[in-house]
Design brief:
By secondary structure, the protein is an alpha+beta fold. It has two domains: 41 residues, no CATH class; 145 residues, Endonuclease, Chain A, CATH 3.40.960.10. The chain has ten helices and four strands, in the order ααααβββαβααααα. Strands 1-2-3-4 form a four-stranded mixed sheet. α5 links the parallel β3 and β4. It is globular, with a radius of gyration of 19 Å. InterPro entries: DUF559 (IPR007569).
C-alpha cells in the first residue's frame, strides 16, 4: 500500500491501470487487490501513509491533504490528515522539521491554526509504531467518543505481517530467497532490501 501510494502520488501509475494489469490467480493478486482498496495518492511520504492507515483501520474518518482557510478564503495550511467533523489536524513530523528555517515556518503555521481554532497533533515514527494506542486515543478524544482498544486489532494484525515489523521483514527475507538462483553462490549478507536496512521504523529520522 505504501509503495502504491508513492507511485500514485508521483503519477507513475493509476489504480485502473494496475487493476487492468492484474492476472487472476497469479501469486500476490489477492494481497494487491486488498492494498488497492486502501491506497490514496494524496499521501506525500511513506510514514504519512502509515499514519493514515492507522486511523483508517481504527475507524477514524480522515481527509488527506486538507486545506485550512481563513475568513477571506486564504489558505493558511494544508494538513497531512484532518479528522473529519473536527478541527483536529494529524501530521507526521519527519527530520526536516528540525531544520531551523522549517521550524520557524512551523511555528508561524501553528499560531495561524490556533487563531482559527484548529489543533495540530504531530507524531514521529517511534510514536506511531511503539504507541499506536495513544494516537488512536487522541483521535477518539477529538471525535468525542470513548476509546475502545479493540479498534487496534486490525492495525496490529496488518502491521505485524508487514515489513514495518521484525516478523514481517523476516518473512520477506524468506520469500526473497526463493528468487536467488541456485547456481549462484549465496552471499552471507542479508537479502533484506537496502531501503529496509537503511531505515528502521524506530529511527526518528525515518
Amino acid at each position: 500500500m505504501v509503495a502504491i501510494d508513492g507511485a500514485l502520488h508521483l503519477g507513475h501509475v493509476d489504480v485502473p491501470g494496475i487493476r487492468e494489469a492484474m492476472v487472476p490467480g497469479r501469486r500476490g493478486v489477492r494481497v494487491l487487490r486488498r492494498a488497492l482498496d486502501l491506497v490514496d495518492g494524496r499521501s506525500e511520504s511513506a510514514w504519512e501513509s502509515v499514519l493514515r492507515l492507522l486511523h483508517v483501520f481504527a475507524g477514524v474518518p480522515v481527509e488527506p491533504q486538507s486545506l485550512v482557510t481563513d475568513a477571506l478564503g486564504h489558505v493558511v495550511a494544508r494538513g497531512d490528515l484532518r479528522i473529519r467533523g473536527t478541527r483536529r489536524l494529524v501530521e507526521y513530523d519527519g527530520a526536516d522539521h528540525r531544520d531551523r528555517d522549517q521550524h520557524r515556518s512551523d511555528l508561524r503555521r501553528e499560531k495561524a491554526l490556533t487563531r482559527l481554532g484548529f489543533e495540530r497533533f504531530g507524531y514521529v515514527a517511534p510514536e506511531i509504531m511503539a504507541d499506536p494506542g495513544q494516537v488512536v486515543r487522541d483521535a477518539d478524544q477529538a471525535l468525542g467518543r470513548r476509546h475502545d482498544p479493540s479498534r487496534l486489532m486490525v492495525w496490529e494484525q496488518e502491521i505485524g505481517a508487514s515489513s514495518f515489523s521484525g516478523r514481517g521483514v523476516t518473512a520477506l527475507e524468506h520469500r526473497l530467497r526463493r528468487f536467488v538462483r541456485s547456481d549462484v553462490p549465496r552471499r552471507r549478507e542479508s537479502v533484506r532490501p537496502a531501503a529496509l536496512r537503511r531505515e528502521r521504523p524506530d529511527d526518528p529520522s525515518a
